[in-house]
Amino acid sequence: MLRIATFSLVLSLAAIAGTAGALWYYSQPTHLSQSHQITISPGSSARTIGAQLERAGIVRSARVFAWTVRLQGLSARLEAGTYALTGQRDTPGVIQQLLEAPLQMRRATIPEGLTRQETAGVLARQGIVDSLRFTQLSGDAELAAHLGIEAPTLEGYLFPETYFFAMETSEEQVIARLVGQFHRALGDSLNDRLEAIGLDLHQAVTLASIVEGEAQAAHERPTIAGVFLRRLSLNRRLESCATVEYALGVHKKRLTNADLRVESPFNTYRHRGLPPGPIGNPGKAALIATLYPEETDFLYFVARGDGTHIFSRTNEEHVAAKRKVKRLSSASR
Length: 333
Hints:
Layout: H1 2-27, E1 36-40, H2 46-56, H3 62-71, E2 81-85, H4 91-99, E3 105-109, H5 116-125, H6 131-138, H7 141-146, E4 162-166, H8 171-191, H9 194-197, H10 201-214, H11 221-233, H12 241-248, H13 257-260, H14 284-291, E5 300-303, E6 309-312, H15 315-331
Antiparallel strand pairs: 1-2, 3-4, 5-6
């Protein structure tokens, strides 16, 4: 019995030593020298924060981070904000950094559907970027490839969202942040839908940008996406007014017949199929609507003027809908 008890004690001590050794190892610095800006959202748990830090290479283990925070009773003291962190400190040291004041931040809200030039303007007005440099960099195919985007420019991939940027943030870092948010928003689950709709990623983002440009009422996005996908499947021109505005380089309340004839590969009144690339930067709702379109037999739609559309199955119905809209518009003047 004594031998069994001794053996059990040895095993217990070995297990304790092994656990302590693992905790020690996973608390050690990762030695990542590059500084990363980590933004903690309000209400984030210690485990969520740890996962962010582990993905960025700041700590070795999200679990050990969360366990250390809870053991020290610091969960309630971790505040939302953006922090500049490296992997040069051990886990307790990283936690100590998070207890210090976050970086001074500038806030910028980028609306859905803006072009990259318009996005540059929004950020420049907040003093975050030089608009010319931002526009040049976002049009650099090499930078796009470096950020995981196989496209000539980053049009379509500068994700619209509310961001907080540190005072000294370069244009490259701002662009990387926006594109990184695009990758996170799309995610594997949405990427898996590409095969179902028969488009590659660039085509899907292009179509989502058109849906963003056409839809004002949220509930109509899947229907509009379904109409465009049906037209594509029938080799019909998309005839999107939003693509004409992009080709013209201006937003217009009403397009003329001359506008619809503008020569541009982005003019879907003249050219079949999708344009060469996105016409703006779609938000998540437009991306989801494109990846989960409504199955419909509609082929046309016309704006009522109140943010909604009349959808039609045949050209005859579409012509009648346009006449109706014209009558209503004349009556309201």
